[in-house]
Amino acid sequence: MINSRSHRRFIFSVAILAVAAGIAGCATTDRTTTGSIAPDSAGTAVPSGNFDQMNEQQLMQASTGLGTRYQANPKDKTTAMKFATVLRMTGRSDQALAVMRSLAIAYPQDREVLAAYGKALASSGEFEAALDALRRAQTPEYPDWKLLSAQGAILDQLGKTSEARDLYRQALQINANEASILSNMGMSYVLSGELNTAESYMRKAVTAPGSDSRVRQNLALVIGLQGRFDEAETIAKQELSPQQAQANVRYLRSMLAQQNSWNMLKDKSKPKS
After folding, report:
1. Helix axis angle, 56-72 to 77-89, nearest 10°
2. Which of 6, 25, 107, 200 would bridge with 56, disulfide CB 3.0–4.6 Å?
3. Is residue 222 part of a domain?
């Protein structure tokens, strides 16, 4: 049996990589959305469209154009935030963090900049600093549900499950039935191995406003983790090509076969007497 820290590391690696295995292009994980693959909300692509709709070549072209504009004026907030987003999506998290750190110095009181800086810190694994930036971006009298959910996702990765779920509940009080919050809550239960509860939240998330491909892929992941591979593949095929969906399921099978992981997950999922 693996210890609890190894268990969390295993589950998180599955939650990230099993989805990533089926993603076309070159996207990196946004650790403020537990287990999903996504950019932040720092703007739209250049010249039009969303970054998460772009393929690898389009992202690289956007990166080149934004890089030129950023060099011309590093304090242009909109350009810098978009540039940092594309850098993270193309695997250059350290460079993205450097861009956002400079911007945070230029705009130390700007909530939008602090929020994006927090996400950049989280993407680079600097979780404590990310939490500090997100908390400074938050306004207690008018809390932002997106920031609450982002903080929760980081706390989940630090093993502070109870605190994370409290924040998700606060976020749901502000924006009830929001898909991304429900998905984060579901992935929180995946990280603790409570797969039945995780599936319940994921099924709510996929029918909630704002649900997208990433949320549905997370549902497929949770079902696959319970060994229902055919069902997981059927759901994944709605979002991915058949080859990508099969690759995800193969990855899940191989991961669950390691270190007695499948028995561990079944034990974790059983209700406690």
Report:
1. 150
2. 25
3. yes
Residue 164 shares a structural domain with residue 108: no
Q: Alpha carbon of 82 to those of 62, 68, 93, 101: distances in Å?
A: 9, 12, 13, 14
- 147 is written with which tokens? 């920031």
The CATH number given to whatever domain includes residue 187 is 1.25.40
Selected residue with higher pLDDT from 122 and 248: 122
Sign (positive or negative) of CA dihedral 162, 163, 168, 169: positive
Residue 225 and residue 164 share a domain? no
pTM (2 decimals)?
Answer: 0.74
Decide: 89 and 51 in contact? Cβ < 8 Å. yes
Contacts of 49 by beta carbon, 8 Å cutoff, 6+ apart: none
| Gap between the Cα atoms of 190 and 222, Å rounded | 7
Contact predicate 159/7, CB 8 Å:
no
The per-residue DSSP string of 18-38 comes to HHHTT--S---B-TTSTT-B-
Dig out the tokens for 92 from the structure: 């250059």
| Residues 108, 43: Cα–Cα separation, whole Å | 20
Q: How many CA atoms lie within 13 A of 97 on its CB side?
A: 18
